[in-house]
Write a structure and sequence with these properties.
Number of strands: 25
Distance between the termini: 44 Å
Structural class: alpha+beta
Helix content: 40-55%
CATH class of the largest domain: Mainly Alpha
CATH topology of the largest domain: Hypothetical protein af1432
Shape: globular
Length: about 750
């Protein structure tokens, strides 16, 4: 849409935006320092004069919007408002940090300098290449927590106005936001901002799914309200009888959190029963009475509804380290669903809803980062608990050092690498490259030879020594601190294992051929059963390693006749791991502009007669119908990931220039998909499942395993389908069978 506005209309719009900022500030508890805010506004207007955003609007509207978020949504004062108004001046204009210091003082200039460093240099393009380090660099290199908070406000406004960007930019920025900024907002206690960042990222990554869930939330609102009103009515009667002044309301899950649960639990929207939590906020003039009233309310509620014994959280007796206080309980509603209830006083609620005191570790596991954050939060607990006028100005003296549990080392060329404390030479080797880790024999630390188990110190200069004759060892895991190191060690071991498996495959194939037999699934399964192994991979490994000898006894087992029709449909005994054929592929034609990949166009994914112009990512196994993104690897091959794939999220953060907008061409080939079925075992249910799949839906079954225990059954099914719609329809039909409680797409 073309931007059209007269100069006078623009001036009125800018003035109105600044007036809104000023009105919000004047309504706060902060000491009123209007003069310096107006001075910063005039300075920013002059600095950005004539500059426009991509949408066509005057650029000054962006710093005003960031300052408004800083003031009204995070709750900071005049120093932060001025810094937010000026945050792009040094980066985008000819003004320097020294100019700002002369006009506004050292404090504001330092914050703007910190924001400029984050936006440029090693915190800009190079940082995005190492997305995992970006958040840590952002935190450890900042002298003032307000730098980070203003940066969060800047990102939030950019996300709110992302619609004016190209789709390729939207993908990259949304992915980076979800991977870096939303978790960072969560750690800092900016719960409302974290939720909005997640929802906005999701909106641009999965627009159709976002709108679909949003519509379903709206469509179910009336029914949901009726259920909640029925649930709340008896509780309100009890609270009224207690003589309390209170508010009880339902808090609905965000669109992103609903989708995330649908993905992780493999359920539909209709199967998510905890769409809302109830919150009771009561008025209490005497802080000493809060605990007693909370437990009295708890007692009344548990007289009405059955309590979930493992889901009571007492954060009144022992508050969270960030000052959060509340009593949480979960009860069974009259409709048979669990409902979480949060009980708070008005004071507790205010504390919980303030940025710093929000759910910074809600549903996050304990770890080193949380320990360091808890220590930091305890140092500002007084500020959090006593939000007096100008109290947040004391944050000027507080340094944010969340990652004191990390070290910084240097390569021989001077490249900086951040690692967890106690990391070893082997950790560093694997962090640089899997092959380097696998062939590591020792290290040189500050020019002195050390073993690969040597623990590194901050400031060490480290050279990794390798040898082609060295191979990865399973016992190395005890030398590794980093998750990346452990993962890459497993990858290296798997690669070594693969070469032995390939050798075993050749030996077994030759053995069967020499005896006029084929390497069929039935033949292999009989050997697996005889040797008491888990799957085909284990068998081939042991054959290649000489642990299973191919002799007359093995041949005798293979020659046993099939046990009838069921042996063709099911794996009897311990199931073998299926081996999928790698589809043949041809390199997609990637268009380039000045040597760079053209990411502005949409590339069609085509597959016909077993030949594709792409490769499917093994981590998420997408098929036509899934929302996907293409990644151009070092061989110029397009690797297709689901948009929801965690690996795709990392790629979006780190390799935006290699990501392609992709769309499925009309598929002619079929794809192997796995479905997991669970339910209550009964006579005839297996026949109904087979009939539904093969006859009613006419789907090609490639594997079906089933096992039953204690009245329950689990089935693993492999089918060939043309797209995701067929799988979704299959799962829906299977769930309609009496006794089937779940039918979900799984990893093949």
């Amino acid at each position: 849409m073309e931007y059209k506005m007269s100069p006078e209309e623009e001036k009125q719009m800018v003035d109105a935006a600044f007036k809104n900022l000023l009105d919000g500030y004047l309504a706060s508890n902060h000491r009123k320092k209007v003069e310096i805010i107006e001075k910063a506004y005039r300075f920013a207007c002059e600095a950005h004069k004539g500059i426009r955003r991509r949408s066509g609007e005057p650029y000054i509207l962006h710093p005003i919007a960031v300052a408004t978020i800083v003031s009204q949504e995070i709750g900071l004062g005049s120093t932060s408002i001025c810094a937010a108004l000026l945050h792009d001046v040094v980066e985008d204009t000819d003004y320097t940090v020294e100019d700002l210091e002369a006009q506004f003082g050292k404090k504001i200039a330092k914050i703007v300098e910190g924001l400029t460093k984050i936006s440029g240099g090693i915190f800009g393009d190079k940082a995005s290449v190492q997305a995992e380090n970006f958040r840590k660099l952002l935190l450890t290199m900042s002298n003032d927590i307000r730098v980070i908070l203003i940066k969060m406000a800047d990102r939030l406004h950019n996300m709110r106005t992302l619609g004016s960007m190209l789709p390729s930019k939207q993908y990259k920025i949304a992915g980076e936001t979800l991977y870096i900024y939303a978790p960072l907002a969560h750690r800092l206690g900016l719960f409302a901002i974290k939720t909005e960042l997640e929802d906005l990222s999701f909106k641009y990554e999965h627009p159709e799914t976002y709108e679909n869930i949003k519509r379903q939330i709206a469509d179910t609102e009336e029914a949901r309200n009726k259920i909640f009103d029925k649930f709340a009515a008896p509780i309100k009667e009890k609270l009224d009888a207690m003589g309390l002044k209170y508010e009880m309301k339902a808090r609905v899950k965000s669109v992103y959190s609903i989708w995330n649960k649908m993905e992780t639990k493999r359920v539909s929207f209709d199967e998510i029963y905890d769409l809302y939590a109830a919150r009771i906020v009561f008025k209490c003039d005497n802080e000493c009475d809060e605990k007693r009233i909370c437990w009295n309310i708890y007692s009344e509620i548990t007289d009405l509804y059955s309590l979930h014994p493992d889901r009571t959280r007492d954060w009144i007796s022992v508050p969270k380290a960030n000052g959060y206080r509340a009593l949480h309980l979960t009860v069974m509603g009259s409709d048979g669903n669990w409902v979480e209830i949060q009980i708070r006083s008005e004071r507790m609620d205010e504390m919980a809803e303030k940025g710093f005191a929000a759910y910074w570790k809600y549903k996050i596991g304990e770890g080193e980062e949380e320990t360091e954050l808890r220590t930091w939060l305890m140092t500002i607990e007084e500020i959090l608990n006593n939000p007096e006028p100008n109290a947040l100005d004391f944050l000027d003296t507080i340094k944010l050092n969340l990652f004191a549990s990390e070290i910084v080392v240097f390569t021989p060329k001077g490249e900086l690498i951040t690692l967890p404390k106690n990391s070893t030479v082997l950790d560093l080797a694997f962090s640089l490259h899997t092959e380097m880790g696998a062939h590591c024999i020792a290290g040189k630390v500050n020019h002195k030879l050390v073993p690969l188990s040597h623990k590194l110190q901050s400031g060490d200069q480290v050279e990794v020594l390798t040898s082609h004759s060295q191979t990865a060892k399973e016992e190395w895991v005890k030398f590794l601190v980093t998750a990346k190191g452990q993962t890459r060690l497993r990858t290296a071991l798997k690669k070594q294992r693969r070469s032995i498996i390939d050798k075993g495959n050749e030996l077994l194939k030759r053995f069967l051929a020499d005896n006029n037999m084929e390497m069929t699934g039935d033949n292999i399964n009989r050997i697996i059963s005889k040797e008491g192994l888990q799957n085909k991979e284990d068998l081939l490994y042991k054959v290649g390693n000489g642990e299973v000898v191919l002799n007359e006894q093995v041949l005798k087992e293979v020659k046993k006749s099939p046990t009838g029709l069921l042996s063709k449909l099911f794996r009897i005994g311990t199931p073998g791991k299926k081996v999928k054929e790698e589809p043949k592929s041809v390199t997609m034609k990637i268009e380039r502009i000045n040597g760079k990949i053209d990411i502005s166009k949409t590339y069609l994914l085509h597959s016909e007669n077993g030949v594709s112009n792409y490769k499917l990512a093994t981590c998420c196994e997408p098929i036509p119908g899934d929302d996907v993104v293409g990644y151009v690897n070092d061989n110029d091959e397009v690797v297709v990931h689901k948009l929801s794939c965690p690996n795709a999220m990392r790629l979006k953060s780190s390799y935006g220039g290699r990501l392609l907008q992709t769309d499925w061409d009309s598929p002619t080939d079929k794809f192997l998909v796995a479905v997991r079925i669970e339910g209550i075992d009964r006579m005839g249910i297996l026949q109904e499942i087979i009939y539904t799949i093969s006859t009613t839906l006419a789907i090609d079954i490639r594997r079906l395993e089933i096992g039953a225990k204690d009245g329950l059954f689990t089935s693993h099914l492999d089918v060939m389908v043309k797209d995701a719609t067929v799988v979704n329809n299959l799962c829906k039909r299977l769930k309609s069978i009496k006794g089937v409680t779940a039918a979900v797409r799984a990893k093949a």
